[in-house]
Amino acid sequence: MAKICPVTKKGSQMGGRYSNRIRATKFNPGGMLRKQPNLQKKRIFVPELNKHITLTLSTTAIKTINKNGAYATLKKAGLI
């Protein structure tokens, strides 16, 4: 299973590590670090369809569903 949110299309990003000890010399020995999105497995009830849907969503998508409603958000994302 890919680590991508189907609603917000959030995936992993590359970010740099920087040691506080090395900060004065302006040298970055830490290299790059892959950062994963905060994905949660959620069971959502869609009253328009009268059924439950289980999805792996980012926390931003969960907040969007709470604000705009499950049916409208999932329809806009192309999941239903």
UniProtKB/TrEMBL annotation:
Keywords: Ribonucleoprotein, Ribosomal protein. Belongs to the bacterial ribosomal protein bL28 family. One of its GO terms (cellular component) is ribosome. The keyword Electron transport does not apply. It comes from Candidatus Adlerbacteria bacterium RIFCSPLOWO2_01_FULL_51_16. InterPro entries: Ribosomal_bL28, Ribosomal_bL28/bL31-like_sf, Ribosomal_bL28_sf. The keyword Translocase does not apply. One of its GO terms (molecular function) is structural constituent of ribosome. This is 50S ribosomal protein L28.
